[in-house]
């Protein structure tokens, strides 16, 4: 299915910001002002639209240079504005989804839910265990 619907893409700005946030982190170069700005924009999207921002971030996460990605992420989190935005996002996410937050994160991390289309249900042991434990 195409990302574009009649009238334009519904999540184009969120997708764009998530793509560039990942592109600046997943590189061998150290972070710079552009990386900080793009990641700040992506965090603003995540604060305003938590589930959509997380889905877009997961969609564009590549980890081509995994060691460098985590190094750049660690360096980025040392910046006070970014750390404040992360804290704001975490508190808003906990406030909006006190009961379903863990389930949402699980579905996003396992890619059971994606941004622009519906994936069919897979009957796996993990799904059965998740339903039994009622996490």
Provide the descriptors you would attach to this structure in a database record.
single chain; mainly alpha; 135 residues; 64% helix
What share of residues is helical?
A: 55-70%
Q: Which regions are unreliable across 5 or more consecutive residues at pLDDT < 50? A: none
User: End-to-end distance, in Å?
Assistant: 31 Å
Sheet/helix structural class = mainly alpha
What gyration radius follows from the Cα positions, in whole Å? Answer: 16 Å
Encode the helix/strand succession as letters. Answer: HHHHHHH
Main sheet specs:
none
Overall, the morphology is globular
How many H/I helical runs?
A: 7
How much of the sequence is in beta strands? under 5%
Average pLDDT rating: 90
Overall description:
The chain is globular and about 45 Å long. The protein contains seven helices and no strands. The model has no long low-confidence stretch (mean pLDDT 90). The protein has helices spanning 12-25, 33-48, 50-59, 66-76, 80-96, 101-109, 125-133. The chain has 135 residues and is mostly helical. Helix 1 (12-25) crosses helix 2 (33-48), helix 2 (33-48) packs across helix 3 and helix 2 (33-48) runs parallel beside helix 5 (80-96). 64% of the residues lie in helices and 0% in strands.
């Amino acid at each position: 299915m195409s990302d574009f619907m009649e009238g334009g893409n519904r999540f184009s700005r969120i997708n764009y910001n998530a793509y560039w946030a990942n592109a600046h982190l997943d590189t061998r170069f150290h972070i710079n002002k552009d990386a900080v700005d793009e990641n700040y924009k992506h965090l603003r999207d995540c604060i305003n639209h938590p589930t959509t921002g997380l889905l877009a971030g997961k969609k564009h996460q590549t980890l081509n240079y995994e060691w460098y990605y985590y190094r750049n992420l660690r360096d980025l989190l040392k910046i006070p504005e970014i750390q404040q935005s992360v804290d704001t996002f975490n508190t808003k996410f906990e406030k909006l989804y006190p009961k379903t937050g863990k389930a949402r994160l699980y579905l996003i991390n396992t890619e059971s839910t994606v941004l622009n289309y519906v994936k069919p249900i897979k009957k796996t042991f993990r799904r059965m265990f998740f339903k039994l434990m009622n996490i």
